[in-house]
Amino acid sequence: MQVSSSADDSRQSGFGRRRQRLSDAETEQRMLRSAADAVAATGLTVSLDHIRLEDVIRDAGVSRSTVYRRWPNKDLFLGDLLLDLARANAPKSATGSKEITELVRRSVLARLDAIRSPIDRLQLAAELVRDTGQQDFQHINESREWRTYLALTVTFIGLPPGDLRDQIQEVLAESERAFTARIAASHRTIADLLGLRLRAGIDVTFETVGHLANAMMRGLIVKALATPSIATERVAGDLYGATGDWSLASLGLISVVMTYLEPDPDVTWDDKRVTQLRQQLEETDDLFE
Keywords on this record (predicted)? Predict the structure, then answer.
């Protein structure tokens, strides 16, 4: 490939002759960030054919010759971009732990003196699962970053065997492990707050619950892309004493989570416990850290 002159570089990138020379590492970072911004603006399709290397060079404000020295062809650049997107768009806590903390804090404090019985605590747990599930679904459904991540998983499946595929699989697997661990920790936290435990007689863990909840929510998100009415559909009813209109996400999540929770017989729910819980809720900034 013929390398253009410095004058041509200035003309192609839109910068003057006095542009500061960037290191190869700085050029690489600018190119990847510029391309990632383009993906964020339009969303990732199953391919990256809509990403034009010349457009990225222009938007990044870098030297054409440096770019083509680092990536002699577009496929090499797109491979690095896929890896960068996989790392940057790893699934995160959907609505954020602080937002969920506020929801849990308000709900539990409002009912703290009325949840003395195990049945009352199961009802409150169901309400929290319902409300947090819908909040998470809405956030994910509207998140371009999440759609990019989902598209990345589809793109990964279509990659030919080789080092790039192996590297992206490793990044995605680590992202999934971390995300599932966060889901498991959040359900464990709510169970501990309300004196609940995993049901006896079946060898499941909170990580098991996290995997199932993650898969259920992701499946609904994918279905909602083709059938948007899924996001707004509601079912009226009473589950575990929690009455109201249930979204499909909330119904799915409660069918997973509440199936495996029961009151912990070793927990004594007395005035001391209520006082400690009130203090924890009022003084802890983030219950899920």
Answer: DNA-binding
